[in-house]
Design goal:
This protein is mainly alpha-helical. It has three domains: 89 residues, no CATH class; 91 residues, no CATH class; 78 residues, Orthogonal Bundle (Arc Repressor Mutant, subunit A). The protein is built from 13 helices and six strands. The strands form two sheets. Strands 1-2-3 form a three-stranded parallel β-sheet. A hairpin with a 5-residue loop joins strand 5 and strand 6. Helix 1 runs parallel beside helix 2 and helix 4 packs parallel to helix 7. InterPro entries: Apaf_helical, Disease_R_plants, NB-ARC, P-loop_NTPase, WH-like_DNA-bd_sf, WHD_DRP. It holds the Pfam family NB-ARC.
Length: 289
Amino acid sequence: MIEVSNSGTLNKTAIQRTVTDRLGLPWNDAEAEEIRARFLMKALRRKKFAILLDDIWNDFQLEDVGIPTPDSESTSKLILTSCSVDVCYQMDAKSLIKIEYLEKEAAWELFRSKLSTQAITAIDSPRPNNVVKEHADAIVQSCGGLPLALKVIGRAVAGLRSPREWSLAMQATKHDIKDLDGIPKMFHKLKYSYDKLRPTQKQCFLYCTLFPEYGSINKDQLVEYWMAEELIQDLNRGHRLINSLLSACLLESCGSDIEVKMHQIIRHLGLSLAESGEQPEGCHSCPMT
């Protein structure tokens, strides 16, 4: 599985590195991408493979990164995932499988999995006219069955208990976001999770958008940058802050204790907030340049 996420520039090197490592082949940083692509093409044509290219935003030539397109006689498989049907056709997909939104029961299960025991108790209270249950139901419905929205909003309301708190949350997240083609429509809802952060957390979250959209972020390096920008004062505080962003689903685990990553849509939310004036104070330059 290779996360492409090429809303901007296609990161050919990252894709080639993933394939190279999986095949157990030697890696040479000095080698040109074109030469590496030809080498990988030859290596993969001699094998039976299954490759999943995840989150493709724009079409690209598979040969440019070294992935051969399986022909009708090949037992190898290439699977693409994209929010755009046009991109699938441009990538010469032979068949399409539409992934449906979560049904109500599955959406509720995912949403509840992010809540605290106290919040679940308030929702499940048997008292008549349980408005907390009504507000929670409205929030789940407005998420349109989108897993990312359900996870992020679930974390944001995880500690709510009183009817007034749930009412305010419902009002803040009531806009519908079912249209995946209009990604900015999701921002109003996901921004609720951002608004729940403390000022320092907001600044550190926005700072994460300065990293490239692909790949992972080293935790220690991220904390050092935050300290250099005087957003925080010590390493322990930085790692606690990373954990708080992970708990809020604004950062994601990479399956490693030393790295994190930011979901493509969450990163675009952060960039949108920064462009609208939510600039993190003290951030003067991009650490990647």
